[in-house]
Write a sequence for this structure.
């Protein structure tokens, strides 16, 4: 979320996905509005990164900032504003506001009023391929772009990634291991899943959705290991150009499934689907003198896979149409060992996209459709190429399912302790 004044200048730093400041406001909304009531309108559980609760936090804690706010935007719509001078938001991003009516495609005034925030702060809405304006003279000077280039409303990053990898039809499934670890499935069903995250999909966005499972620190968990415990690997990368992540992978490859009895709960900044526990934090269980860095790396990869599999079980219960193989695309998905782990945990075939251009290519496809250079997104399926198909090892899957059951029980055992820890963190 970016908050701007009437002159179009930010009134404070932007929010990011991992900002946890609005926990109390989330609880207030649950108590005073009702989580089910909010879900019924938005198709999403209320979370502490939603615009509504963060605006409420600003109103309560920084009224001197709140009172300056003219409009709220997302990062992408703020960039669009700087390019064109047009203040607007794309429907897809509105899904993450906490006050967007996903069926009727509009801000819900009643919900906004219940939060006690100003309706005027929410900008007009556009669909992804709408041309909202053109690169103006000032932006042309600043960026080197040619004045007059059409600018589209744009799309959510995961949607762009899906289009880039040919995942555009109902039932198609893709997984990314970027900052988060996630997978999303395209559908038209409006019986939305309470445990998951839902927004509009770019292809057929008037009546097509993508429902995603997200563990908050997916790829970020391995980056955490690299940044804090891999000084040697980083030094080797700087000296010889060998990827530090590849060096971590090689250590994980030497460890058997189950990481010799080491289990990691990868909740480094709370967790989203399916447990929705903002108090949850990382936990290493079973650590012994027999373990080394390789065990810790692999156990973390397995923990992320378990966190995503925990959500997949909900899809299975609902008999959601899924077109396997699971397409893996960006971020940590290029790790061969991590893909093997996910393949075995999920017990499904997986493939990797050959082109690693990722979301920017999906955005280029959107630009082509929005400017009528292409008539639709069918080219996405034509150009997508898949490599490195993996099939699950049944023996490994059975091992992982035993560890997964223990993983679940460990979380249930410490769930209340996380709340105590949160109070201590706040106190001291």
């Amino acid at each position: 979320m970016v908050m701007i004044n009437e002159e179009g200048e930010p009134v404070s730093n932007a929010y990011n996905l991992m900002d946890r400041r609005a926990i109390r406001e989330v609880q207030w909304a649950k108590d005073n509005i009702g989580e089910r009531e909010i879900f019924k309108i938005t198709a999403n559980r209320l979370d502490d990164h939603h615009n509504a609760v963060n605006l409420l936090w600003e109103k309560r804690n920084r009224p001197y900032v709140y009172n300056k706010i003219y409009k709220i935007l997302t990062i992408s719509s703020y960039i669009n504003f700087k390019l064109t001078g047009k203040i607007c938001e794309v429907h897809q991003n509105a899904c993450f506001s906490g006050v967007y009516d996903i069926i009727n495609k509009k801000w819900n005034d009643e919900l906004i009023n219940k939060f006690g925030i100003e309706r005027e702060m929410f900008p007009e809405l556009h669909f992804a391929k709408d041309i909202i304006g053109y690169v103006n003279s000032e932006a042309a000077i600043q960026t080197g772009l040619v004045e007059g280039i059409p600018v589209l409303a744009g799309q959510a990053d995961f949607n762009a990634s899906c289009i880039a990898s040919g995942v555009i039809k109902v039932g198609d499934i893709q997984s990314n291991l970027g900052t988060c670890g996630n997978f999303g499935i395209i559908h038209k069903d409006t019986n939305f899943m309470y445990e998951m995250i839902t927004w509009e999909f770019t292809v057929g966005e008037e009546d097509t959705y993508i429902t995603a499972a997200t563990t908050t620190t997916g790829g970020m968990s391995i980056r955490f290991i690299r940044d804090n415990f891999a000084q040697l690997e980083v030094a080797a990368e700087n000296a010889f150009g060998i990827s530090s992540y590849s060096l971590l992978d090689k250590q994980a490859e030497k460890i058997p499934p189950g990481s010799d009895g080491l289990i990691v709960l990868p909740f480094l900044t709370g967790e989203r689907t399916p447990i929705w526990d903002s108090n949850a934090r990382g936990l290493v269980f079973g650590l012994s003198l027999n373990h080394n860095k390789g065990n810790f790396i692999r156990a973390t990869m397995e923990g992320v896979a378990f966190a995503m599999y925990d959500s997949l079980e909900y899809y299975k219960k609902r008999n959601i149409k899924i077109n396997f193989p699971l397409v893996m695309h960006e971020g940590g998905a290029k790790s061969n060992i991590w893909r093997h782990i996910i393949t075995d945990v999920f017990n499904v075939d997986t493939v990797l996209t050959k082109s690693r251009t990722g979301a920017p290519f999906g955005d280029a496809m959107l630009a082509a459709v929005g400017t009528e250079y292409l008539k639709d997104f069918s080219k996405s399926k034509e150009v997508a190429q898949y490599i490195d198909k993996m099939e699950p090892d049944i023996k490994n899957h059975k091992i992982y399912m035993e560890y997964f059951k223990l993983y679940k029980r460990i979380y249930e055992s410490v769930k209340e302790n996380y709340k105590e820890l949160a109070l201590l963190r706040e106190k001291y």
